[in-house]
What we know:
alpha/beta, 6 strands
Amino acid sequence: MRWLITVVGFALLLVSQMFASEHSALARVTVYWKDKASGANAAWNGVQLREGHCAVDPKKIPYGSKVVFHDAECVAVDTGPDVVNRKAARLCARSATERNAIVIDRFFDAKQHALAWARANPHFMIVQVRTPATETTY
């Protein structure tokens, strides 16, 4: 019985690594912040939001994944209808590649900080996505 449990545990470890991924993606990055409408919690799943969180389509980027921007690393914890249907990418795209980009909504604690970041950075950028299973220490 111990042998069977050990084999099954080892197999599950290998299978989880097979499905883990670390990849780059073109993303339309938008910003949102804490205000009376959104409050301190995410509207879709009740997570307590803080700077360093972002909203994603969980079918494309699983919750708990790390999204690496050129200046920060955010954790995917939230979603929303405009993120899932990629409204921002479809509205301001200049090419088919941009139209098909994923949308990531980056959370900031303050409106001023969010708008300053949005002004200083391009609308579309390449981001690195690391799913929770790819986070290992060496």
